[in-house]
Amino acid sequence: MLTATHYVLANLSQFVSFKDGASAIWPSSGFYLAMVLLLGRRVGLPIFLSELTVNSLLFYKDIPTILGISFISTIEPLITGWLLSRFLNSNRSGRRLFESSRNVFKFLILILPSPMITTSFAVAVLCLTGKASWEFYGVIWQTWSISVITGRLIITPFVLVWVSQFWRRIQFKSSSVAEFAVLLILLLIISRFAFWVGNPVEYMMIPLLLWSAFRFGAAQSTLLVVVISAVAIFGTARGLGAFVQSSVTESLMLLQSFICVIALTSYFLLAVIHENRTAQFKLKKANEELEQRVTERTAELQQAKEVADSANHAKSEFLANMSHELRTPLNGILGYAQILARSKALPQKEKHGVDIIHQCGAHLLTLINDILDLSKIEARKLELYPQSFYFPSFLQGVVEICRIRADQKNIEFIYQPDASLPEGIQADEKRLRQVLINLLGNAIKFTDNGAVTFKVDVIESRGKHSKYIKFQIIDTGVGIAADQVGAIFQAFEQVGDQKRQSEGTGLGLAISQKIVQLMDGTIQVTSQLGVGSNFYFEVELPIDYNWVQQTNRCLQKIIGYTGQKHSVLIIDDRWENCSVIRHLLEPIGFDVIEAPNGQEGLNKMCSQQPNLVITDLAMPVMNGFEMLKQVRHSEDLNNYIVIVSSASVANIDRQMSLDAGGDDFLPKPVQADELFAILEKYLDIDWQYESEDKGISNTLELNDIAIITPLTEELQVLLKLAQQGRLKKITEMLEEWEQRDISYQPFANLIKPLAKQFQAKKIEQLIESYLNQGDV
Ligand code: ADP
After folding, report:
1. Pick from 648, 570, 653, 584: which is nearest to 612 by CA?
2. What are the residues whose beta carbons fall under 8 Å from the beta carbon of 570, sequence distance 6 or more?
3. Residues near 291 by beta carbon (within 8 Å), at least 6 away in sequence
4. Bond into 669 cis (ω within 30)
5. What's the CA-to-centroid distance between 521 and ligand 1, angstroms?
6. pLDDT tens for each residue of 178-192
7. What digits encode the pLDDT tens for the residues 409-438?
8. Which long-range contacts (CB under 8 A, 24 or more apart) does 357-360 make?
9. 168, 187, 502, 688: which is deepest, by most CB within 10 A?
10. Which class is domain 1-161?
11. 469: Cβ below 6 Å to ligand 1?
C-alpha cells in the first residue's frame, strides 16, 4: 500500500512539476512522516522497499543511485519522526499537533533541519553518480529540500488529522456539509480567477481558510489547505496565475511561500481556536463544579438551618415553659403585694415595704420577660406598644428601684430630672423602664466608690406634640477600655473584670440598644478606664395632654361600684391564683366563686350563673381549652363572658385562647388595674373611687397646725436633697431630727408622706415657702 501510494504521489508530483522537472511539493515526504508518526519505526523497511521500487521504476536506472537515494529518503522521515515525537510530546496519531500554537511552532521548527541535511547527501549522490552536475548543486538542493519541507507542511497534518478523525467516526451534520460545499464553490471561483484568468486574487483564499478554521474543525481546514495548495501548484506549473515568473526558481519561491503562508495561518488559527475552546471548556467545567459545590453547600446549610431551627424551637419552648413556671409563683407574690397595698389597716411604713416587694416582683417579672425578649430579638419579632403614662412617677419608680441597690453598695445615687419634664407621655413604658433599669443597674454594678447620676433633660421641643428627651446615666466606676466599647452592645459580650461578669449575662445592653433603636434613638457611651462611664440616648416622646385627668382617676383607689352586685367565677387549680383575684374583688363588692378545674367550672356556671368567668388554661380533669369548647357549643352557656388568664404569655397562646372562644386575655401575674379594666369593659360598671388624700392636701395649709420650722441651714440641706431627688435621705434625716428633738415631728410629718409618694417637686415648693417666710 505504501509503495502504491508513493507511486501515485510521485506521479502526481511529476505531473505538476515544472518544465525542468523541479516540483513545488514532494507529497511522499509528508506521507512518510505521517506514517512514521502513526506507526513508529517499524515502517522504515516498507518505506525503503517502496523507495527502491518507485525510484527504479520512475527516476533512476543505476543501482548505486537507487540505493543511495532510497536509503537517504528512508532515514530522513525516521529522524524527523523521532524528533517530533520527542519534542512535541505527541502520541503517534499526532492528535496534539493542533492543541496549542506552541506545538505548531515546534512542528514547523522540527521539520526543517533533517531535510536540509539529508538533501545535501542526496544531491551529492546525484552529482557523484553523474545524474546532475556539481554546478547546479545549490539550485537542486534548494528546490529539493523546500519541496520536501512543503510536502511535510501540507500532507503530514492532513494525514494525521484525517486518520484520527476516521477513528473517532465524527458525524457531519447536513447543514455543515452544505456550508462546506459553499466554501468549496467560492474556492473554485477564486481559483478560476487567480489561475486561469490570471487576476492576482490568490490571497483571497485566506479568508476562506479562516472561515473553515472558525466554522469547521481541523479535518476540513487541513483538507482545504491541501486543495488550495494543489490548485496553486497545478495552475502555476501550467504557467497560469500570479506566481508565474520568468525563472522557475522564482516561480517556485513565490508558490512555496504562498503555500507556507496559507498552511501556517490555518494551523496557528486552528491551534488558537483549540486553546480557546479548551479554556472555555475548562471554565465551563469549573463553573459546573462550582455550581455543584454551591448546591451541595446550600443543601448542607439548609440542613444546618433546619437543625438550628429545631434547636431554636426547643429553646423557645424551654423558655416559654420556664417563663410559665416562674410566672405562676410570681402571681401570688405580686397579687398579694397589690392586695396588701390596697389594705387600709396597713401603716404607711409597711405599705412602703409592700410597695418595694411589688416593685421588686415586677422587676423580676421584667427579667423573665427579658429572656423571652431575647428569643424575640433573635427571631426579629420585638415590637413596641406605646401607651400614655405619667412620666414623673414612672421615672421616680425607676429611681427607687435603683436607689435601693445603690444604698446597698454605699454609693451615692443622684437623680436630676429637668424641671420642665412633660407629665403625660406616650411610650412603651415597660420597654423604657427596662432600658433605664439596665443602664442604671450596670452603672451601679460597675461602680464601687463615688456616685451614679441619673439625668433626664428636655433638649428640644417639637411643637406642642412631642419633646426630645435625653437620658444620661453617669457613673464614677471602673470604666471601659476604648477598644472594648464597640463590643459591649453585642449579645453575650462582657468585658473587663471577670469577677463582675459572673453577675450578668451580657444580654442587657444588646436588648436595650435594640429597644432604643426601635424608638429611633441610639445608646451611646463615652468612657474612660478607671474614671467612669457616661451612657446616654435621646428619644422623641409624644406628649399626652389628656393624661392629667386620666392620672387623677387612675391614681385614685377603687373602693366599689354602683348598681347591682356582680359575681365572678374563677376557674384555676392553684389556690393562690384564685385567692389573689378573690382578695382583689371581694373588698370592692364582688361575689367570688371558685372552681378547681374546667368540669367543676361548667357545673358552677350552670348552678350559680356568674356574670363573668376567669379561667386558667392548664388544669387537671378538664383544661381551659376543652371547657371553652364546651361553653361555646352549649346553648345555655354560649353567652358567658370568659376571660382567659394564663402565665403563658406568648402571642400564640393568647391567640389560641381567643380562637378557642375566650373573650379576652388577662396575663399572669394579674395586675389589679388590668383586672379592673377588663371588668369595666365587659360588665359595664361605674367604679366608685376613694376621695383625694386629705392628709396631704390639708398639710399644705400651713396655718392649720403650729409647726416648729427647722433652721434655714437645715432647710437648705433638705432643699438640696429634694432637688437631687434624694427622697429617702430626706426621710432618714427627718427621722434623725425627730429623735433628737420631738418638736420637729409636725414638720417631719408634713414632709415624710410627700417623700414616700415621690413628690419631690411638692417638697421643694414647701421648703421654699418656708425659706421665703424666713426671709420676710
Ligand atoms: P451584663 O451587665 O449582664 O454583663 P450588659 O449587656 O448589660 O450585660 O453589659 C455588657 C458589658 O458591658 C458588661 O459586662 C460590662 O463589661 C460592660 N458595661 C456595661 N455598662 C458598664 C458600665 N457602666 N461601666 C463599665 N462597664 C460596663
Report:
1. 570
2. 577, 578, 581, 582, 592, 593, 594, 595, 613, 614, 615
3. none
4. yes
5. 19
6. 888 898 889 888 888
7. 889 999 998 888 888 899 988 889 989 999
8. 357/333, 358/334, 359/397, 359/400, 359/401, 360/401
9. 187
10. mainly alpha
11. no
- Mean pLDDT over 564-578 rounds to 86
C-alpha cell at 501: 461578669
d(CA 208, CA 290): 39
The DSSP H or E segment spanning 524 is strand 524-528
Residue 543 corresponds to which cell in the numbers above? Answer: 406628649
Q: Which grid cell sits at 93? A: 496519531
| Rounded distance between C-alpha atoms, residue 604 and residue 626, angstroms | 16
Question: To 10 degrees, what angle do helices 348-378 and 248-342 make?
Answer: 160
480 lines ligand 1 (CB under 6 A): yes
What is the spatial distance between Cα 35 and Cα 46, in angstroms, rounded to a whole number?
10
Give the residue, out of 409, 471, 494, with the most ligand 1 atoms within 8 A of its beta carbon, to mutate for a pocket test. Answer: 494
Domain boundary assignment for the chain: 1-161, 387-547, 558-689, 712-772
Residue matched to cell numbers 473584670:
497
CB 540 within 8 A of CB 520: yes
Q: Which amino acid is at 28?
A: S
Side-by-side strand order, sheet with 451-462: 412-417, 451-462, 466-475, 532-542, 524-528
- The CATH code of the domain at 387-547 is 3.30.565.10
Cα–Cα distance for residue pair 129/398, rounded to 1 Å: 125
One-letter amino acid at 491 equals A
Q: Please write the tens of the pLDDT for every residue from 649-708.
A: 666 677 788 888 888 888 887 878 888 888 888 887 888 877 544 333 333 333 333 455
Pocket test for ligand 1, best of 453, 454, 473, 488 (most atoms within 8 A of CB): 488
Looking at 414-564, list the stretches that DSSP marks H as alpha helix, in order from N- to C-terminal side: 429-445, 498-501, 508-518, 547-555
Question: What span, in angstroms and rounded, lies between the C-alpha atoms of 475 and 452?
Answer: 4
Which residue, chain included where needed, has cell 397646725? 705
Spelled out in words, what is the top-level CATH class assigned to the domain 558-689? alpha beta
Q: What is the pLDDT of residues 307-348, one digit of tens each?
A: 988 887 787 778 777 777 887 788 888 888 888 877 778 887
pTM: 0.45
Give the burial string for 278-312 (b: 16+ CB within 10 Å, else e). eeeeeeeeeeeeeeeeeeeeeeeeeeeeeeeeeee
H or E segment to which residue 312 belongs: helix 248-342
pLDDT tens profile 727-753:
888 888 888 887 776 667 767 877 887
Distance CA 452, CA 473 (A): 7
At residue 595, does pLDDT exceed 50?
A: yes
507 lines ligand 1 (CB under 6 A): yes
**What distance in Å separates the CA atoms of residue 394 and residue 384, rounded to the nearest whole number?**
17
